[in-house]
């Protein structure tokens, strides 16, 4: 290594800051406002409406389908929020505010999955005990298969 010097990388630790709501976070791609640095070309599509649930109004779908899609949208939003919060907690494992928020959101997500299983079908094997006919049958097959690509 003749006369070349190695570089020293300096990566600042992410501070806890203002958070987006779970509705905004999924569409923006982060829960942390400080990490939102969109490219100029994508700024025009950074809305807060979910394209799936908002597009159901004029498609002639049933009320049950709309209810399923809206509940599924909430589950997706809170699951994304939890995933992003988990990444933060990987490097800030003793942040009391983040841990408190994680516990609250995890409980809320569990309640939404339980509600979905009771009203429609289980999303995972852990939701089977909560489904309508979970007492009499293993109801995991009551919903669509993952490759069917819909929440119908």
Average pLDDT metric? 79
Could you tell me the radius of gyration in angstroms? 20 Å
Shape: elongated
Order of helices and strands: HHHH
Topology of this structure?
Layout: H1 22-28, H2 51-54, H3 63-91, H4 96-119
Protein name: Spore coat associated protein JA (CotJA)
Pfam family, one: CotJA
Domain Protein CotJB: 69-148
Description of the structure:
By secondary structure, this protein is mostly helical. The chain has a domain at 22-31 and 59-148. Helix content is 42%, strand content 0%. The protein has four helices and no strands. It has helices spanning 22-28, 51-54, 63-91, 96-119. Helix 1 packs across helix 3. The longest helix has 29 residues, at 63-91. It starts with 21 loop residues before the first helix and ends in a 33-residue tail after the last helix. The mean pLDDT is 79.
What's the gist of this structure?
It contains four helices and no strands. With 152 residues, the protein is mostly helical.
Question: What are the salient characteristics of this protein?
Answer:
elongated, mainly alpha, 152 residues, 4 helices, 0% strand, single chain
